[in-house]
Amino acid sequence: MTTATAAAHRPGLHSWLTMIRCEAKMVVRDTAGLVVPIGLPLLILVMNASAAGDEEITAGRTALDLYILPLVFTIVTATIGIINMPSFLAYYRRSGILRRLAVTPASPAMVLVAQVVVSLVQAILGIGLAFAVAVLAFGAHPPVDVGSAVGIVVVSIAAMYALGMVVAALAPTPNSAVAIGLVGFFGLGALGGLFGGRDSLPDPLATLGEWLPFGASVEALSNAWAGQPVEAVHLLSLAVSAVLGAVIAAMFFRWD
Amino acid sequence: MSEPAILAEGLHKRYGDTVAVDDISLRVERGETWGILGTNGAGKTTTVELIAGLRAPDSGSVRVLGLDPRRDRAALRQVLGVQLQHAYLHGALTVEELLGLYRSFYPDPRSTDELLELVELTKQRRTRFEKLSGGQQQRLSIALALAGRPQVVILDELTTGLDPRARRRMWAAVESLREETVILVSHAMEEVERLCDRVALIDGGRVIASGTPADLVAQSGAADLDEAFVVLTGKELEIEEESA
């Protein structure tokens, strides 16, 4: 009896790297997709920076440092995580690309991880560019507590991606993925200070916004910039979003 | 002693109230090329999806090279090559990049040059998938199905929508697969007659006749396979329109 030779060989490191390189090429060749995560945050930065750059709040940090930059960084992570990544994945599913991969030894995890890695690079570029412009053109300052700020950006990225994965896993079509992503982004954003401070919201909504990942990310980054201790509720919000989102996405992600 | 390449017994699959596959049994020996022939909605694609493990049957069983397509999924993926109907590939990647990606999934893949030659895409190696003609896209998708040196190859609607010249090229590529077991889903008589050792005629989710093309013709008392199909199913084999 010759049963198939197959001791289940899994695609190795070379295959993972190839997949990541292919994803990167797809993203770079889709130029329009780069506009939102890089362009929108820059626009918001430029529109608000000049006034906010002169207004010192605490510890030598201005309103630009404490309010605008945390918001801009969060917009970068949220647009990439919640809008861009799920629309790519939904397009892959809709077009049959994921279905095609499902009959190869590639696993769903490979596509997801490759997409995460590539959008991570986008996030770093987007944040780096926004920060460079803020420092060079508007005299922004680095965070008092750099370590915390970096850590929060990392957790924020994880939370936003996890939410994006949930959108990708649950949305029935690419259009609905974009729609759900946009609604999610603006919904979380509105409650989290995207359209002006949360202080102007009714108390229950302001509190809710602070617990949701967008607001939590802005608040936590703002604290790190001022050198104040980051509040547990914000970290908890980001961590819970990341873990819960990853679990839900892993349970529901489908090939077709 | 010799285990068949594919052994399907009493497959049944329904979607809601629609029975897609009612009762299908197949025994495909190693190295054979089998045609699965039927009208639209006869259950061809579902049958193939059950064999490839993309769906689970409601009842009945399938073994491919002795493997259960669902339970032994990882092992089966190593030895099975599938070309799916209506599957698109990463549009912005080139022929070469896509071959590189799919080759990377397997421990001992065919070389890129060999694959390009097999489906005659050597000149298009740096062309993006979205810029290829329909026939070229089809051919690339066959090359990807063969990248991992599969022992069993499933080709779903190999030449639908291709011009006669492209069709002949595809046929030549399939004819070159001598070692492999091939399942060819088709509604093109000429193709089945030319390429297949045996044919299963499927209608209403059941195998209504099977055998060599010559057997089917003799069995039905018809003049050719086309007529045999009409006699056996009572249906004309319409030309399938390519739909998005």
UniProtKB/TrEMBL annotation, chain A:
What GO molecular function terms would the record report? Answer: ABC-type transporter activity
Kindly report the protein's main subcellular placement as a broad class.
membrane
Transmembrane regions: 27-47, 67-92, 112-140, 146-170, 177-195, 232-253
Where is the protein localized? Membrane
Q: Name one GO biological process term.
A: response to antibiotic
A single GO cellular-component term on record: ATP-binding cassette (ABC) transporter complex
* Membrane-related topology note: Multi-pass membrane protein
Q: Which Pfam families match?
A: ABC2_membrane
Keywords, sorted A to Z: Antibiotic resistance, Membrane, Transmembrane, Transmembrane helix
- Span of domain ABC-2 type transporter transmembrane: 16-222
Could you confirm whether the keyword Endoplasmic reticulum appears in this record? no
Query: InterPro entries, from UniProt?
Result: ABC-2_transporter (IPR052902), ABC2_TM (IPR013525), ABC_2_transport (IPR000412)
Q: What is this protein called?
A: ABC transporter permease
**Source organism superkingdom:** Bacteria
From TrEMBL, chain B:
Asked whether the UniProt record includes Lipid biosynthesis among its keywords, one would answer: no
SUPFAM superfamilies per record: P-loop containing nucleoside triphosphate hydrolases
* Subcellular location(s) of the protein: Cell membrane
The UniProt entry's coiled-coil ranges are none
**What would you give as a GO molecular function for this chain, any one?**
ATP binding
- This protein's UniProt keywords: Antibiotic resistance, ATP-binding, Nucleotide-binding, Transport
| Gene3D superfamilies in the record | P-loop containing nucleotide triphosphate hydrolases (3.40.50.300)
Known InterPro entries for this protein? AAA+_ATPase, ABC_transporter-like_ATP-bd, ABC_transporter-like_CS, ABC_transporter_ATP-binding, P-loop_NTPase
Which GO biological process annotations does it have? response to antibiotic
Which Gene Ontology cellular component annotation is one that this UniProt entry carries?
plasma membrane
Residue ranges annotated for the ABC transporter domain, each copy included:
6-229
Q: How does it sit in the membrane?
A: Peripheral membrane protein
Q: What is this protein called?
A: ABC transporter ATP-binding protein
The organism encoding this protein is: Aeromicrobium camelliae
